[in-house]
């Protein structure tokens, strides 16, 4: 099902997801709209949930978290209660940036940041291994980030 947005909305969204702090006046100029029309569209896009939130994306390396790992988690079962308990608890681990329920060999894949491999070992042992229902884990370390974006194709 295609979202109910037009080409102008797409242009606005494209600019905002790359420059979330842009002023309304500058946004209106970039998409060739009046400031008031642009503001109304942005408000509607927010209200309808196309714009979820505005955030600052921090540099993990500058913040002292240069190590990134992807952790495949296998649970002991698939009962709704177990999945819900796991999801509730994993959301409380600050080093976990993303958690995805998977179809395939793993039940979940986590994106985890750490200060170094010793720090990752601590997170793995003290936090991830203690999550509800964890039966097995397989970790892979990112050697280098080749490409990264938060921008969706609009």
UniProtKB/TrEMBL annotation:
A molecular-function term among this protein's GO annotations: sequence-specific DNA binding
Any one of the GO BP annotations: response to amino acid
Species of provenance: Maritimibacter harenae
Record GO cellular component, one term: cytosol
Record-linked CDD domains: HTH_ARSR
Record protein name field: Winged helix-turn-helix transcriptional regulator
Organism classification: Bacteria, Pseudomonadati, Pseudomonadota, Alphaproteobacteria, Rhodobacterales
Keywords tagged on the record: DNA-binding, Transcription, Transcription regulation
InterPro entries in the cross-refs: ArsR-like_HTH, AsnC-type_HTH_dom, Dimeric_a/b-barrel, Tscrpt_reg_AsnC-like, Tscrpt_reg_AsnC/Lrp_C, WH-like_DNA-bd_sf, WH_DNA-bd_sf
HTH asnC-type domain mapped to chain residues: 5-66
């Amino acid at each position: 099902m295609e979202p109910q947005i037009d080409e102008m909305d797409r242009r606005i969204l494209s600019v905002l997801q790359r420059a979330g702090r842009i002023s309304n006046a500058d946004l209106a100029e970039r998409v060739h709209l009046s400031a008031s029309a642009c503001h109304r569209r942005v408000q509607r896009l927010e209200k309808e949930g196309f714009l979820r939130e505005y955030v600052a994306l921090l540099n993990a390396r500058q913040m002292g978290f240069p190590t990134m790992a992807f952790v495949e988690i296998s649970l002991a079962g698939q009962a709704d209660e177990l999945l819900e308990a796991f999801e509730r608890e994993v959301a409380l681990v600050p080093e976990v940036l993303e958690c995805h329920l998977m179809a395939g060999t793993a039940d979940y894949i986590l994106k985890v940041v750490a200060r170094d491999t010793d720090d990752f070992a601590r997170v793995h042992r003290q936090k991830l291994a203690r999550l509800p229902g964890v039966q097995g884990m397989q970790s892979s370390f990112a050697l280098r980030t080749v490409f990264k974006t938060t921008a969706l194709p609009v």
